[in-house]
Amino acid sequence: MSKIVVSSPDAPAALGPYSAGIKTGEMVFLSGQLGLDPQTGKLAEGGVVAQAQQSLKNIEALLAAAGATFDNVVKTTVFLADIADFAAVNEVYASKFTEPYPARSAVQVGALPAGGLVEIEVVAAL
């Protein structure tokens, strides 16, 4: 099995000992993406909506680096610091995905790295 690291100058570098993404065979696995601006390394200002938008921009850049688009995504997981933000994040999320929608889980977590409000990870099939 070959593993190819997926990265992009238009997405933040990993914050620890992991890859932003791995491509193996016809599958692409992206690590959770916070709403970090890749140029500043800081969370997008404007609350959970701005962070969700930036998270999806980061995902889009990584998918492109792997030769994929949102249409290739088959599974997502959305991590929220506050489940009360679900509707707002869902609206942003819906702007990037079309039918047939990927399978998805959404959960509230105790805390996210860097004080993030939302983190989204995806799995894509090429």
UniProtKB/TrEMBL annotation:
<dbReference type="Pfam" id="PF01042">
    <property type="entry name" value="Ribonuc_L-PSP"/>
</dbReference>
<protein>
    <submittedName>
        <fullName>Uncharacterized protein</fullName>
    </submittedName>
</protein>
<comment type="similarity">
    <text>Belongs to the RutC family.</text>
</comment>
<dbReference type="GO" id="GO:0005829">
    <property type="term" value="C:cytosol"/>
</dbReference>
<dbReference type="GO" id="GO:0019239">
    <property type="term" value="F:deaminase activity"/>
</dbReference>
<dbReference type="InterPro" id="IPR006056">
    <property type="entry name" value="RidA"/>
</dbReference>
<dbReference type="InterPro" id="IPR006175">
    <property type="entry name" value="YjgF/YER057c/UK114"/>
</dbReference>
<dbReference type="InterPro" id="IPR019897">
    <property type="entry name" value="RidA_CS"/>
</dbReference>
<dbReference type="InterPro" id="IPR035959">
    <property type="entry name" value="RutC-like_sf"/>
</dbReference>
